[in-house]
Amino acid sequence: MTTKPKQSNFLSRRSLLGGATALGAATTLRHATASEVNPDNLPPNVPEWTPYLGAGVDVNPYGMPSEFESHVIRRNVEWLTASAESSVNFTPLHELDGIVTPNGLCFERHHGGVPEINPTDFRLMINGLVDRELILTLDDLRRFPQANRFYFLECAANGGMEWRGAQLNGCQYTFGMVHNVQYTGVRLSDICREVGVKPIAKWVLAEGGDSAGMSRSIPIEKIVDDCMVAYAMNGEALRPEQGYPARLIVPGWEGNMWVKWLRRLEFGDMPYMARQETSKYTDLMKDGKARMFTWVMDAKSVVTSPCPEKSIVSKGTQLLKGLAWSGRGKITRVDVSFDGGRNWQTSELHGPVLDKSLTRFTLPFNWNSEEMLIQSRAIDETGYIQPTIQQLQAERGFNSIYHNNSIATWMVNEDGTVDNVRLG
Ligand code: MTE
Ligand code: CO
């Protein structure tokens, strides 16, 4: 066999990011892959990739996605934050299937950049109201009994820009501060036994080792219930962006509490009132007072296709896809409406349906160039039903940022394009 002659790449791919420059009217943030078909590659011809040997095994020591998938990336909104070190990028939910977020696509949110930590120098200090204060190495952590659990992490600010109306015309930008990963690590209940927590200890301060000095107070009941210190995600070491070499896992609770680059756990008898639980991550209510400690992420869902980045391209049968999650347990049902919430159909949930994990749902539907107002509504095992934005606003007013779990509306236009709109 001969090797493949150098050919020009027939498929031209482009990433079109329309300009969204101002808050206010729904702005366009659409990207697409444009590809030209090479008729020589189509049946009954032998396509160009068949007669030649492919690339050898030594080319990719760490495997990467196909170059034709180069549009499947995290994206940020440049005007959103003043600097890249204290910023956020978003998971491309609309490009994913199943419930696992690939490590390289997990959204990042950090307040002081990503520190570079040599795992040899990593230490986790445990102090305060315990019988035996300890300093653990990464090796020490790995010798504890192991837990392997899938959990979603959602930033409390996910969708926060949408409180007063539709702002960003993209599923990625309005819902992409969530990821779902299988974590490997140590249960905090095992660490608690090892250090001997004193009965008067009621709170734990989790402290990050990054320049942001991120720290949060977590009640002891949650710590021993299901919190973990994770050192691996989806089978490999944590990514630096996600807290390498160790982070705190606080299942179902707001992402800010999942302290990355974890360096210390202090047991105390009161909440510590750290910056991120007082001046930030509190909810401004209707009467101007701030609500403290809203930890749980309530049930939420999103239709990931069709969506503003995923137009409908041909008439006939379509497959609607989406994700649902709840910080209170398992998702039991997801309803879908095509007429802005008047009528609802029950979608199919795809297993595994896990506790405090993203859950996949699908629903076939027919489209004949008519306008549609697509919504999804999640229900969890406590019976909680995902609210409309009007229901949330009635309770919490219009000045909130965090904890917007309201139902979104995607408007399908007659040409198959889709827009993020606000009803009512
Ligand atoms: N931990 C530290 N040490 N520093 C941070 O800036 N950001 C928090 C949390 N943990 C943060 C942190 C916030 S606001 C969120 S939403 C999650 O980490 C984001 O986790 P991710 O970057 O893995 O998506
Ligand atoms: Co956050």
Sheet with the most strands: spatial strand order: 5-4-14-9-10
User: Looking at the structure, what is the overall shape?
Assistant: globular
List how many beta strands DSSP finds.
25
Question: Percent range for helical residues?
Answer: under 10%
* Biggest sheet architecture: 5 strands, mixed
Provide mean pLDDT, rounded.
91
Briefly note the structural class of the backbone: mainly beta
Low-confidence stretches: 1-33
| Straight-line N-to-C gap | 65 Å
Small-molecule binders here are: ligand MTE, cobalt (II) ion
Compute the number of helices.
5
Percent strand equals: 25-35%
What's the gyration radius in Å? 23 Å
Q: Helices and strands, in N-to-C order?
A: EEEEEHEEHEHEEHEEEEEEEEEEEEEHEE
How does this model look, in words?
By secondary structure, the protein is mainly beta. Helix 3 packs across helix 4. It is 8% helix and 29% strand. A five-stranded mixed sheet has the order 5-4-14-9-10. It has helices spanning 138-142, 171-175, 188-195, 220-226, 389-396; strands spanning 27-28, 87-88, 109-110, 124-128, 134-136, 147-154, 168-169, 178-187, 203-208, 215-219, 228-233, 236-237, 247-249, 262-268, 283-284, 290-291, 300-305, 316-325, 331-337, 345-346, 348-350, 359-367, 372-380, 409-412, 418-421. It has five helices and 25 strands. The radius of gyration is 23 Å and the shape is globular. The longest helix is centred in the middle third of the chain and has 8 residues, at 188-195. Bound molecules: ligand MTE and cobalt (II) ion (CO). Residues 109, 155-157, 255-256 line the site of cobalt (II) ion.
